[in-house]
Amino acid sequence: RCSCKKSKCLKLYCECFASGSYCLDSCACGNCSNRQEHEDVVSETRQLIQSRNPLAFAPRVISPAEVVRVCQAFVSSNSLIFVSPAAAAIPAATSKHKRGCNCKKSLCLKKYCECFQSEVGCSDACKCRGCKNTFGAKQGD
């Protein structure tokens, strides 16, 4: 759960708000506005954020099943590539982060690394430097 202090839990870095849920009593946040009783403020803030970025509340991590589904769609739409159905059905080893992180000094070991926070390894989509992500370091770094 979140532990926001000054944002009133109405920013995307609040775990509860970003996931589309209200804060619970188990949260350690202060001066929270992300509650059922402030539903009008929460929905207005969500709409404002979505007007600027329509994918703001979309999941940032692709599960192995989604990776396979995307690969199968690509293979079936491209007649030049042949992959056997058995090979296409093999799921990826781990989930992948859609955009990747941009860590410069944290070595992908802090909670503000999007991959580390999502408990997935860094991938080629990441622009991190000196990656030491415990869930899977970026190859070739």
TrEMBL record:
<dbReference type="GO" id="GO:0005634">
    <property type="term" value="C:nucleus"/>
</dbReference>
<protein>
    <recommendedName>
        <fullName>CRC domain-containing protein</fullName>
    </recommendedName>
</protein>
<dbReference type="InterPro" id="IPR044522">
    <property type="entry name" value="TSO1-like"/>
</dbReference>
<dbReference type="InterPro" id="IPR005172">
    <property type="entry name" value="CRC"/>
</dbReference>
<keyword id="KW-0539">Nucleus</keyword>
<comment type="similarity">
    <text>Belongs to the lin-54 family.</text>
</comment>
<dbReference type="GO" id="GO:0003700">
    <property type="term" value="F:DNA-binding transcription factor activity"/>
</dbReference>
<dbReference type="InterPro" id="IPR033467">
    <property type="entry name" value="Tesmin/TSO1-like_CXC"/>
</dbReference>
<dbReference type="Pfam" id="PF03638">
    <property type="entry name" value="TCR"/>
</dbReference>
<feature type="domain" description="CRC">
    <location>
        <begin position="1"/>
        <end position="136"/>
    </location>
</feature>
